[in-house]
Amino acid sequence: MQISDIQLRDPFVLPRAEEGSYWLFGSTDKDIWKGQATGFDCYRSQDLDTWEGPFPAFRPRPDFWSPTNYWAPEVHEYHGRFFMFATFGHPEPQVRRGTQILVADEIQGPYEPHSNGPVTPSDWECLDGTLHVEADGTPWMIFCHEWVQISDGAICALPLSGDLQRAAGEPVELFRASMAPWVDPVSSPRHGTGYVTDGPYLHRTAEGDLLMLWASFRNRRYAQGVARSASGTIRGPWQQQEEPLFEADGGHGMIFKAFDGTLYLTLHSPNETPFERVVFIELEEDHGALGVKGAA
């Protein structure tokens, strides 16, 4: 199939040079917002255009704690195994949405629970956890504390144990959505007015700068922003790029390098179910900043 044939949100690409393949993960249920969740599928390609799949990467066992809202799986290779960071929800309001860590010995799975439920705080509404390993080898989960609970959504960092099974400390707040000059508030009948944080992803530039992709809304459309750590470490302080990197109703992006060295941003656009599709955008780095290649 072609990439345009695949309905998928929150795309995550893991290149595997040893097999010459790109593996694509994401939110693959037809309607991720409601109903019984199926799991996560993945796809494989040699050229980023023609894809094989879907292959079932995760299917919950009957006693799995979450029946709904399976979102944003990321797969990271760490100490010789493959770890999936994924968001799971629950229809009961007292059971908070959060990011759990799964594990597999092969990239395509099958993935099984690794952490004991979500690693994010049990009394917080959280989503979109991603793995970042600092220069000293300390693993961190970067995640969103949701605007639906705190109005002004936050990006937070949580130190993890070396085996990625549990938190190894308290969460640290890195910044709030309203700190970015490009972000506009959103409103809903249920949650009122607030500022959204979605989909953090860490990228170290060739010059050593630590950047964070994250998504929110501008002019009522989904958009992809960038922040830069002034210290070059996860603790920041984080400086927000004045303008979004992409604002044409797309976001929840990540960055990967193709086998020919091309740097790509991938995200989903538009932000409307069931029309969301994977988009690949060529990037360039310029003195610690990211830009779309060829943009004016």
UniProtKB/TrEMBL annotation:
Record GO biological process: carbohydrate metabolic process
Keyword annotations of the record: Glycosidase, Hydrolase
Keyword DNA repair in record: no
Pathway: Glycan metabolism; L-arabinan degradation
A GO MF label: hydrolase activity, hydrolyzing O-glycosyl compounds
InterPro entries per record: GH43_arabinanases, Glyco_hydro_43, Glyco_hydro_beta-prop_sf
Protein family membership: Belongs to the glycosyl hydrolase 43 family.
The protein, known as: Glycosyl hydrolase family 43
Organism (species): Nesterenkonia sandarakina
